[in-house]
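Example (one chain per record):
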Amino acid sequence: MKNSKVILFTLIFLKFLFNTSVNSAEIGIYKKIDLFGEVLEKINKEYVDEINQSESMDSAINGLLQSLDPYSAYMSPDIFNEMQTETSGEFGGLGIEVGMESGVVKVISPIDDTPASKAGIKAGDYIVKIDDIQVQGKSLSEAVDLMRGPVGSSINLTIRRAGQKKALTFDIVREIIEIRSVKADLLEKNVGYIRLTSFNENSGEQIREQIKKFKKNKNINAYILDLRNNPGGLLSQAIRITDFFLDNGEIVSTKSRKPSENRKWFAKKGDLIDGKTLIVLINYGSASASEIVAGALKDHKRAVIIGENSYGKGSVQSIIPLKNKGAIRLTVAKYYLPSGKSISEVGVSPDIEIDEETDLFRIKTDTDNQLNYVLKLLNG
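Predicted structure:
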């Protein structure tokens, strides 16, 4: 630790020697670094148990990033390597998109037809225990790593849910997660129903092809775009899909710390469904790219938004590699709707609010009161 103080003193000395413009704020930062070194030294000497200094430093770095927002995080070299490597069926998952909130893992959205969705995990649930391990104090990457495991192995999640006094427990069997992005169906003989579960590189083309098929049916007079429990994905696909239903106007803009990197995207002429009625279904599990689509269509009064308030993830993250072969996930910009409103922490509010009626609620089943409401609205 003495060596670290010598290095720190040398850095400060060189700063004064070669840069006479050093200011009090910079000196304050160096003092904070020195304080951090002193705290780490005290912990190493005085803490009741022996500590792993490397893990402590990782936790400190991650704490710094998570103090910025729920989506920024540090990935150690091992975790970053796992993220980049195809597991080829070796590992299974649960099928949930998660984030951090107040040091606890929060479910952004369960993904359709995955173990988590089938078990009844809901958007907004807080995961407090994974098997017998408390989540509080873990980083998001560590918690995600605990949820991964061999295909066919089981995991027990302890959940806290709004409105429930007691914790809920779920026994779930891990599976290979294969996401089918676009599903479609003809409802009531006259409604084209399109369910989008994520925004991947093929989503836009799949929706375009499905609309072409629907247009061959002359009885269709309305469309439903179902974005419930869609955690988002590629911005490019969100822009493309929104453009399918607009003739002109702004779709979305991003604003970052650097004005030169601010951007706006606009619709091109051509509404694929020829101005027919469009209903967009959203819920608390609709996040990021889903909110861009719903928000833009609402701002342009092109669609009626029905369901629940969306999640409120209106930010852009970049993965930035580090010298130690790890990486940081860092928020670099925010999304803004055509109205100029930010989605962050606010989400998109529906034009007609319809809450899920029971805990037995499942999308596009007999328990789906939101979809049933829309069909009654369209057909009287």
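Caption: The chain has three domains: 2-51, 77-173, 182-314+333-379.
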